[in-house]
From TrEMBL:
<dbReference type="GO" id="GO:0006446">
    <property type="term" value="P:regulation of translational initiation"/>
</dbReference>
<protein>
    <submittedName>
        <fullName>YigZ family protein</fullName>
    </submittedName>
</protein>
<feature type="domain" description="UPF0029">
    <location>
        <begin position="150"/>
        <end position="204"/>
    </location>
</feature>
<dbReference type="InterPro" id="IPR020568">
    <property type="entry name" value="Ribosomal_Su5_D2-typ_SF"/>
</dbReference>
<dbReference type="InterPro" id="IPR023582">
    <property type="entry name" value="Impact"/>
</dbReference>
<dbReference type="Pfam" id="PF01205">
    <property type="entry name" value="Impact_N"/>
</dbReference>
<dbReference type="Pfam" id="PF09186">
    <property type="entry name" value="DUF1949"/>
</dbReference>
<dbReference type="GO" id="GO:0005737">
    <property type="term" value="C:cytoplasm"/>
</dbReference>
<dbReference type="InterPro" id="IPR036956">
    <property type="entry name" value="Impact_N_sf"/>
</dbReference>
<comment type="similarity">
    <text>Belongs to the IMPACT family.</text>
</comment>
<dbReference type="InterPro" id="IPR035647">
    <property type="entry name" value="EFG_III/V"/>
</dbReference>
<feature type="domain" description="Impact N-terminal">
    <location>
        <begin position="20"/>
        <end position="134"/>
    </location>
</feature>
<dbReference type="InterPro" id="IPR015269">
    <property type="entry name" value="UPF0029_Impact_C"/>
</dbReference>
<dbReference type="InterPro" id="IPR001498">
    <property type="entry name" value="Impact_N"/>
</dbReference>
Length: 210
């Protein structure tokens, strides 16, 4: 079985002011670099007038699978987004490292309030943004997951949905020309679930890694 790890329970935010500057910290679970960057982009879109949006994440650099559950390297990344070098991105990332949290993305928004905080003041503010957002959601134990897409005709969609619900896995469904399910499942259970879906539909499902 793949080893469990610490991550955040769900997306959360926390806000506060320091010398007139408003800070809003966000954290969210993320299994891939693409998912982490999507959260950062979403935060930037929500705050188009922000002076800075400082991101940081610790996520797998590749995709876990049943064949390589423990071989995916962890990517750690951050940016100062225009703040003085080393004053913001690294302090934000350090919170995640010090709390041993992974598969997580953070972004701290700043609206400048007219007073320069200095490198030390910025470091305290940006780390506080991440800490308070983590505190708002809480830390949980999780195991490596993988995602795959299941495409099926409408006639078999009820069978597939019923299996996914009975297995209590996370999924999103899209009903268009065909029915597509995006499934998130623990790595250790993925192969068995794929086989069950194929058997239940006599092979009439198209399953692709995501």
């Amino acid at each position: 079985m793949p080893e469990s790890f610490r991550t955040v329970a769900e997306r959360a935010e926390a806000s506060f002011e320091v010398s007139g500057s408003e800070f809003i910290g966000y954290v969210a679970p993320a299994d891939t670099v693409e998912a982490a960057e999507a959260v950062i982009e979403e935060v930037e879109t929500e705050h188009p007038e922000a002076t800075h949006v400082v991101p940081a994440y610790r996520v797998p650099a590749g995709t876990a699978s049943a064949d390589q559950p423990g071989s995916v390297m962890l990517r750690e990344w951050c940016s100062d987004d225009g703040e003085p070098s080393g004053s913001s991105g690294k302090p934000a990332l350090n919170v995640l490292v010090q709390q041993d949290i992974r598969n997580v993305v953070a972004a701290v928004v700043r609206y400048y309030g007219g007073t320069n905080l200095g490198v030390g003041g910025l470091a305290r503010a940006y780390s506080r943004g991440v800490k308070e957002a983590v505190d708002a959601t809480g830390v949980v134990e999780d195991v490596p997951h993988e995602q795959f897409e299941v495409a099926v005709d409408y006639n078999d969609s009820g069978t597939v949905r019923g299996i996914l619900e009975s297995e209590d896995v996370e999924f999103d469904a899209s009903y268009e020309a065909a029915v597509e399910f995006v499934v998130r499942v623990p790595v250790a259970e993925a192969n068995a679930l794929r086989e069950r879906l194929r058997d239940a539909t006599s092979g009439r499902v198209d399953i692709e890694a995501r």
